[in-house]
Design brief:
The chain is α/β, with parallel strands linked by helices. It is 39% helix and 15% strand. It has a seven-stranded parallel β-sheet, with helices on both faces. The longest helix is centred in the middle third of the chain and has 22 residues, at 108-129. The chain is globular. It binds nicotinamide-adenine-dinucleotide.
Length: 254
């Protein structure tokens, strides 16, 4: 029996089969979960990728900047499952002007888009799913260590710092619903989101050498395993926390 046997999990953020969310959905199914996906933008592409999962799941449209999508999410997910035991937030976006070393010149409109999609949406998604989580459960988000100012990550780094704080406030407010809220801080992975960061190769070159355990830039499975573990019943008393899946880089000086 898998560690997610009988659990109903909503996974956001599948775009390609390199997406961290794709790996989470695959492992969750292998561990016994029923998975529902949300997709953004190119839904036909997400549906095509979903067919590569062990059991092709339904795909529901969700743009986290669209209020109507959020307000109707519970009803639309409820057409496929009678409740949710887990939700995965694997969503991030920042306009090009907010990345790549342009920190001092980025306009507020672009910063606000980054914060809306990458930070505020963690709260929006949690609240939208709450009506389906009557028996409690787990919410897991994807983070990039925000305790440092990194090269080129710029306003996405600020958005992730906000995400880490949001994680703690959600944990505070959702504990009474028996919902645990945790982040997985992954090392750099070659996904669409990462490739859109100008200068991302700076991370790619440095990370594997710095990591005590080494680091494979194209292996999303370690991060996905941590997500699945946090969705399971094996972290029953952990909330507001961040699990680092980065080969150990966060723990050592450079
Ligand atoms: N790739 C990395 O190096 C890395 C490292 C640590 C954390 N993360 C985080 O992991 C998460 C998943 O990213 P990924 O690396 O798998 O890349 P990805 O490009 O595969 O996934 C990003 C997802 O965000 C979705 N998205 C963007 N705007 C949206 C919107 N308005 N509404 C709904 N969805 C929207 C995209 O459709 C896509 O599915 C992100 O939060 C990212 O910041 C990535």
């Amino acid at each position: 029996m898998g560690i997610l046997q009988g659990k109903r999990i909503l996974v956001t953020g599948v775009l390609t089969n390199a997406s961290i969310a794709f790996s989470v959905a695959k492992l969750a199914q292998e561990e016994g979960a029923t998975v529902v996906l949300t997709g953004y933008g190119r839904l036909s592409l997400v549906e095509r990728i979903a067919k590569r999962l062990p059991a092709p799941p339904p795909v529901i449209e969700l743009d986290v900047q669209n209020t109507e999508h959020l307000e109707t999410l519970a009803d639309r997910v409820g057409e496929h499952v009678d409740g949710l035991d887990g939700v995965v937030h694997a969503i991030g976006f920042a306009p090009q002007t907010a990345l790549g070393g342009n920190f001092l010149n980025t306009a507020w409109e672009d910063v606000s888009t980054a914060l809306h999609v990458s930070t505020y949406s963690y709260k929006s998604l949690a609240v939208a799913c709450l009506p389906l989580m009557k028996e409690g459960g787990a919410i897991v988000g994807l983070d990039f260590d925000a305790t440092k100012a990194w090269p080129v990550y710029d306003w996405m780094g600020v958005a992730k710092a906000g995400l880490e704080s949001c994680n703690r406030y959600l944990a505070r407010d959702l504990g009474r619903h028996n919902i645990r809220v945790n982040l997985v801080a992954a090392g750099p992975l070659r996904t669409m989101a990462a490739k859109s960061i100008p200068g991302f190769q700076e991370f790619e070159e440095a990370w594997p050498g710095k990591a005590p355990l080494g680091w494979d830039l194209s292996d999303t499975e370690p991060a996905a395993k941590a997500c699945v573990a946090l969705l399971s019943d094996w972290f029953p008393a952990t909330t507001g926390d961040i699990v680092h899946v980065d080969g150990g880089v966060h723990a050592v000086g450079s």
